[in-house]
Description:
Pfam families: DctP
Family: Belongs to the bacterial solute-binding protein 7 family.
Strand order of the largest sheet: 7-6-8-5-9-11
Shape: globular
Protein name: C4-dicarboxylate ABC transporter
Signal peptide: 1-22
Keywords: Signal, Transport
Low-confidence stretches: none
Amino acid sequence: MKRSTFLACLTAALMLSGTAMAQQAPPIVIKFSHVVAPDTPKGKAAEFFRKLAEERTKGRVKVEVYPNSQLYKDKEEMEALQLGAVQMLAPSLAKFGPLGVKEFEVFDLPYIFPSKDVLRAVTEGPLGLSLLKKLEGKGIIGLAYWDNGFKIMSANKPLKKPDDFKGVKMRIQSSKVLDAEMRSLGALPQVMAFSEVYQALQTGVVDGTENPPSNMFTQKMHEVQKYATISNHGYLGYAVIVNKKFWEGLPSDIRATLEGAMNEASRFANAIAQTENDDALKAMQASGKTEFYTLTADEAAAWRKAMLPVHADMEKRVGKELIDAFYKEAAKLGFKN
């Protein structure tokens, strides 16, 4: 065989071998852990992202979704991400305060968002992006905000006036703002992992809690709560985050593809959140297990009057300038705090 022919054959063989090896290379695994049910807005969005990511990378990425605290509970998942035991989370925004990024607790302030339009102006604008940037010092990249929705209060007694909260043990996430919110009503806040709430309500360890309807329904909390008040007093949202070292170590084309998939999954998540909450509320009302009450205008005003001082109380912790920036976004749309 001529030398030139031999070299051509060898080159072709090496190319084929390299292609075969590339095809046989194991996929990049992204473990995506979260604490809520698969049929919540977050659970559905996580599955939607998984499907897009695997399709668009043509199998080079495999996303393993672990819902319902299968891997880690509330307090454990953030450390697991920083250590690289999981690559992706979608924790509630309240989780970043205990991590040391207290500014995120601004989202917990009662009545900070007078409308969904104000919320979207914050999360999709420079203000929301600047907050995500603050996570990088903790070894975390913030990719997107996902809605869950506005919260309602539930308990085993009617909650119509601020005085009705006195002495009621209310489960909260670990957040100084949420602690202050409950204390402003005279309630006794109890920090507890989300996965433990149903049993705690069932056994009387706590008397009530606050959640968007979709979380309340999918965790069957309406089965162990006699009353609920449609108050829309606060917002529950998530930030989709990844381990910084893992994300920056991805091939650039893979990272760009995943960013595109995340953008589409975020639009999907935020589009379905309201519908999911509306459907969950209707289902709970139809069950007859919980009596739902909508605040009158006067009652809603009394709740606001009781809770709005929390804004001023939290200025040193969250940052007065940041709170004022949220007010300015609301003012642009004609709202005044």
